[in-house]
Amino acid sequence: MKTPCLICNATQWRSCYHGSIRMGSFGKKSPDDLNVWECGGCGSRYLPPVMADIEAYYKSGEYRDDLSQGNAVDEYFRLTDNDQPHKLELIGMHEMRGKIVADIGAGAGPFLDLVKGLAAKTIAVEPNQCYHDSLRQRGHEVYTWAQDVPSALAGKIDVAVSYSVLEHVESPLTFLQDIRKLLRPGGTLALSTPNADDWMVANSADYAAFFYRKVHLWYFTATALQRLAELAGFVTCDVTFDHRFDLSNAMVWMRDKRPTGNGKITFDPALNAIWRESLIRQGQSDYLYAILKAPA
């Protein structure tokens, strides 16, 4: 591939994966083998989009279906509510109290619901307009894109969050630059994204074909994420690792070549803890979390 990287403009790429990718829920595979390319400049991995119009796709019901989430607000809450306290813990309640908080890629808004009693103002940026009426009814200001946020708020937002969004966007650099412009001097961005150094990706070809998917255009290691943050104008990017799955999940994947969740095989909790802690320590967990700081 010779196309310049949308993050660092380098033109040196290597194929880090060649094969089928996931096209929706488990079992839906691309008809042809595709390449995922690793940039020789910034280390980010890129899956060229298989959809013709990315912006229209992200606004469509097809996108929600490919995420296995649909467009129903209650279903979104059912799938994501239990994840929100961990996301708040990453930043801390004290960072939210009395502050202007924006969720970029808010979905139906479960995180903003959690912090609404703390924050002075909550702002949802969400392309899927199926969620907009519900978000407004729950007291959140709503915009479709970061560029739509009024200029009166630019440079005034104290905290922005963007969980499991970065991997979906067409240009991660522009995406982070747009968020930085919304933040006050010294403001905070918390984000998360799948870890391209996930142990399962490296050790199971079947899992790699599940990990690389139509809805994710970009994949980051901790180093690549820090480089992206630097290029976007953030002064720090502190990355932490988290692993959401137990040893049973990995063992069953290796045996059955399919996702089963946690707890299908019973292991001593101490063994599960060692498994998780080992992957986190080696940077081979399944997820990355990062706190980025805008220039003061």
Describe this structure in words.
This protein is α/β, with parallel strands linked by helices. Helices cover about 35% and strands about 20% of the residues. It contains twelve helices and eleven strands. The chain has helices at about 55-60, 60-65, 75-80, 85-90, 110-115, 130-135, 170-180, 200-205, 205-210, 220-230, 245-255, 270-280, and strands spanning about 15-20, 35-40, 45, 100-105, 120-125, 140-145, 155-165, 185-195, 220, 235-240, 285-295. The strands form two sheets. It has a seven-stranded mixed β-sheet with strand order 6-5-4-7-8-11-10, sandwiched between helices. It is globular, with a radius of gyration of 19 Å. The model has no long low-confidence stretch (mean pLDDT about 95).
Comma- or semicolon-separated keywords:
single chain, 296 residues, alpha/beta, seven-stranded mixed beta sheet, four-stranded antiparallel beta sheet
Structural class: alpha/beta
Strand content: 15-25%
How far do the termini sit from each other? 38 Å
What do the pLDDT scores average to? 94
Helix segment count?
12
Written as H for each helix and E for each strand, in order along the chain, the element string is EEEHHHHEHEHEEHEHHEHEHHE
| Strand runs, count | 11
User: Main β-sheet: number of strands, strand sense, barrel status?
Assistant: 7 strands, mixed
Rg calc: 19 Å
Uncertain runs are none
- The coarse overall form would be globular
Task: Going across the biggest sheet, name each strand in turn.
Answer: 6-5-4-7-8-11-10
What portion of residues is helical? Answer: 25-40%
